[in-house]
Write a structure and sequence with these properties.
about 20% strand, single chain, 5-stranded parallel beta sheet, alpha/beta
């Protein structure tokens, strides 16, 4: 089938929050552009969340650029259905030039220094010759499932984020949740509240308060400048790969609060026995818990240091600090050593849920100089690339701490717009 070819100024790859933010900025600048999306706009939000999922940030940090909804900035814990409705209203109002069901299969340089963007559609293949390409595909295309999952027999049901919906949809029995980041702790809490016996294989993830001195933590991160920390001030390169912190959508969660609910906490999953009957764990539960607590305490310390530098009127405007009870220590956690292995059958585990994250799929990128500039994890390190006219948006630490989430896209998109050819 002959490929249809179209010349255009700018192609944006991905109609997630980052891509839509970029489109809003380009609209304001009067730049001709299209947004290519392999499925539907905001597809990850539509199909890779569970039934009771709620937005983790207050509305002020969850809106699309240009979104006008009349709701309070501080409203938090919105259901995904409600949030998608607000986003869809904004998409319709802004009339973003989105081409859905348009999968980008290759991006290469053309002889005239333009970019040749190859797209597969139901109606047939298409090629865009673009002066600029802004790649905002997101970091959530391929689920990150450990190889040991293949050793688990069919007697155990396996789910992951994107296939888990609710506790009643699982087989009867206990559940092993693997992955102690934000998703893993939220699912463990939901399953325990539904009466399931839950085992959680923890990870080294920072904790965070949900609120401090009466305000949501996101407002503190914004007010203190921590959200907009430039990447040049990144001291530990490992922070580029930090998981989302341990917290609930509208309330705190900690290892201690989960343990009080009856969740059995384990070290990090190391693998499975050859016959798939035993789950094997590192002896690092205490280390994981200390890491979470340290992150929690350091963040509060940074906020308190900021408050101490303000004048009396500002200091007195904030409520007195109150400890979150969810982070109160649960003594049995330190008294009992977790098992190094778990017999799934004897524990009554009929379901394993992999809350082990996602990875980007950049297999479509055929520009060698751009590929070579990726980091050791295969991820972009800056909005700019060695190739004039090709840019990244929506990945962690491109320019600031929040380059990888909705609170930071609005900082990077205007920067990119100012550098387009």
């Amino acid at each position: 089938m002959k490929k249809e070819t179209h010349h255009i100024d700018t192609v944006v790859i991905g109609a997630g929050q980052a891509g839509l933010c970029m489109s809003y900025v380009l609209q304001g600048a009067g730049r001709e552009h299209i947004v290519l999306e392999q499925a539907r706009a905001l597809e990850q939000w539509r199909s890779a969340r569970w039934d009771t999922f709620r937005i983790n940030s207050p509305l002020a940090f969850s809106r699309l650029m240009g979104q006008r909804d009349g709701l309070p900035d501080r409203q938090r814990g919105l259901s995904l259905r409600t949030m998608l409705g607000l986003w869809d209203d904004c998409i319709a109002e802004r009339a973003f030039p989105i081409h859905e069901q348009s999968k980008v299969v290759a991006v290469e340089q053309a002889p005239d220094a333009r970019f040749r963007v190859h797209v597969e559609r139901e109606a047939g293949p298409h090629v865009y010759l673009a002066r600029n390409v802004i790649a905002a595909p997101g970091n959530y295309q391929r689920p990150r499932i450990p190889a040991c999952a293949g050793q688990i027999g069919p007697q155990i049901e396996q789910r992951r984020v994107g296939t888990y919906t609710n506790p009643s949809a699982l087989r009867e029995g206990s559940v092993l949740v693997v992955g102690g980041g934000q998703t893993g702790v939220q699912l463990s809490e939901e399953l325990a509240q539904a009466g399931r016996r839950v085992y959680l294989a923890t990870s080294m993830v920072k904790g965070t308060p949900r609120s401090h001195r009466g305000e949501d933590i996101m407002f503190w991160l914004d007010r203190t400048g921590l959200l907009a920390t430039p990447k040049e001030e990144l001291i530990d390169p490992g922070e580029r790969q930090d998981r989302l912190p341990i917290v609930g959508s509208d309330h705190p969660i900690s290892h201690h609060s989960l343990a009080r609910m009856g969740v059995t906490l384990l070290g990090t999953l190391r693998g499975m026995s050859a016959n798939g009957e035993l789950a094997l764990f590192d002896n690092n539960l205490d280390e994981n818990m200390r890491f979470a607590q340290t992150g929690y305490d350091e963040l509060i310390g940074q906020i308190e240091e900021w408050i101490a530098r303000q004048d009396d009127a500002v200091r007195l405007s904030f409520a007195a600090p109150v400890a979150e009870p969810e982070w109160r220590p649960h003594p049995p956690l330190s008294a009992l050593a977790p098992p190094a292995e778990l017999n799934l059958r004897q524990a009554g585990i009929h379901t394993v849920i992999w809350a082990t994250g996602w990875r980007a799929d950049l297999s479509w990128l055929l520009i060698d100089d751009v590929v070579r500039a990726l980091d050791t994890h295969g991820l972009p390190q800056a909005c700019d690339t060695p190739v004039d006219g090709f840019f990244w948006l929506g990945f962690p630490w491109l320019r600031t701490r929040t380059s990888g989430n909705g609170a930071g896209f609005h900082l990077d998109a205007p920067y990119i717009a100012s550098r387009l050819r």
